[in-house]
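Need tokens for this chain, all 242 residues.
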Amino acid sequence: MLEITAIVMGRQDTLHPTFLWNESKAVLIDTCYPGQLPLIEQALKEHGFSLQQLTDIIITHQDIDHIGSLPSLIQTSPSTLGVWASRMEQPYIQGERMLIKISQDAIDQAVRSLPPEVPEEKRQAFRHALEHPPKANVTQLIGYEDGDRLPSFDDLIILDTPGHTPGHISLYHQPSRTFIAGDALILHEGVLRIADSRLNVDNEAALRSLVQLSAYPIDQIISYHGGQFRGDVQAQLQALIG
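Here are the structure tokens for all 242 residues:
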């Protein structure tokens, strides 16, 4: 689990992408906000790895804090990266459709929510970034429709977890018994939750997506927002699902 901390929209925010590797693959799961490539590079260095070792990127879903640095990673890579996402999220990531949560009203609201001390120049740059989100080609489709494991990474199981977005995916890493949630779960003050209802396209689907986790022995969860949870995972999930 990486920790990427920066000031975003005038406030400090920490994201938790995940990095996995084996003899043939080095995989980054989600890519943070636009402009955060140097922070990703530094986080990898702290764990003894470099950007040049990356072979693949998995995007759990289309939100801008997950696809933000994807184009930069592709452009700076010395080799062709495999970019993996679900079929449903593909057209949004590739820029063929506008991100599902980005409407003009949503953009206006986001700009208004910036702290008053943010200068006008940065406000307009923020607006431009929302109106022109990053995009990149998805080279490989994943999810149950095309198989549930990543080739050359057989111990990484892909789980369809719609709700936060229609084609959201999560991952289960068998050797470490880790559920890599993306935004299917957030961690807030030690408690697992689904994301705020205003950020989910379907709250009921988000909760239903968690039912399948009872079939997996999970020792820890990595939430993109909140970080690592260790403890009685199934008890927290049951309390959440009801």
